Structures are given as structure tokens and as C-alpha cells.
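task queued by scheduler; priority normal; single chain, no ligands, no partner chains; default sampling; output format set to C-alpha cells
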Amino acid sequence: MNIALIGYGKMGKMIETIAIERGHQVILKIDVNNLTDFTQEKLSKAHVAIEFTNPETAFSNVSRCIEYGTAIVSGSTGWFNRLEEVKLLCAKHNGTMLCTSNFSLGVNIFFEINRQLARIMNRCPEYSVEIEEIHHTQKLDAPSGTAITLAESVIEEIKRLEKWELYTDENMGGKKSRRTPIRAIRKDSVPGTHHVKYSSEIDDIELIHTAHSRKGFALGAVLAAEYVCDKKGVFTMKDVLAISG
């Protein structure tokens, strides 16, 4: 499989290493220093593009790949307010797209456990819920896309909750709040930790996922590229992992 990398920072380099280990070729690498190489002609030689950039450029990068006819796998977050536009564009061009807030296989398992617990908690109004995420200081968006995905699943399943909000220690929501608070913390050299906590007067129930390195994200991105490279449509990591529901 020929891969184009859009974004060649730490994550792009790790994806390149794993892709080569799995027998693929990286034939194009785009970063801020060679944006003139981001052309339809050069992308046409790739079976799939993997995009890890930033919230400001991701929408444009993904849209361009779809318009150029190249399957795109995107791990950038902070731009999903425009995701529906990209889905419509993908349908218009009969394209291929997979966007996710987190490629880690473990995190996607965590997503499913989170949803199942929230489904149970819908019947337990004595519990309040809060979400905490910790990432490295270079992460540009807050809260993380992963934390938002966790919160959206909680809100979808727990009918007494209406929305999520970014909170600080001074204004964290209380038990009676209809909002799901997300606390975002930035520390040096933390790949990503996500914590979902349910609290009552009697006990706490906690789900925690701790990433030890970025390698899990990079591997998931390559697996996603392998999955979509010969398909058409819009996909998620649930499709890659064959998770139903």
C-alpha cells in the first residue's frame, strides 16, 4: 500500500515507522515546508492519505483529499464541528474518509465500555459524572477530542444530561447539574489519560485509560488506512474493529 502523510511531526514520523514495518511505502510527506507538493498529481500515486495536523488546517486537508479522489484517514481533532460538511463532500465525490478522535485500539474499547456503563447509569440518578483528560502541553485543543467523544456518549445514554462543558476546579458542576463537566489538564510529556468518574454519597465508579506512548495511536492509524484503502464511504474505528452497535 502506498501512503501519503499529511503532517510530518512526531506522530507522522511514528506512523511512517509502523507503516514500513508492516510492509507499506510512504511515497509522499507533506508538512509546512513543502505545501506545494500537496497536489492531485502527487496524491494520485497513494492508495490512502493519513492526516495528523492541527484544528486550523485539518478541514481543508481532508476536503482536498476527498476532492482529489484520495482515501483519507484523519486523526486531527478540534474541527469536528464541520464534520457533516465533509461527509456531504465525501458523498458528492464518492470518496473515502475515516475520521476519529482517537485511533488507539485500547481507547476505542474504552469508548464501548464507557457507553455501556452510561447506559446502566441512566437508571441511577443518584450518580453524577465528570470527565478529566490530561495531555502534553503541545496539544492545541481543549478538551481533547477523545474527552468530547466520551462525554457525547454519556449524554446520549443518560437522558437527564443535556450537554458537556469545559470546567475548572472553581466551577465544576454538582450532582444536580444537567451538564457533563470536562476538566482539561496539560502536563509535560503526557501522551493522554482519560478518566470518567461517577460519584454518589455511597461510592465512586471510575473508568481510566492511560496511554504510555503515541505508538498505539500510530498503529491504529495504519490499521485504519489498511481497512479503508479499497473501500468507498464514511467509516469509523468501529468498522475497523468490527464493533457492532
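post-processing summary
- The chain has eight helices and eleven strands.
- Residues 105-121 form the longest helix (17 residues).
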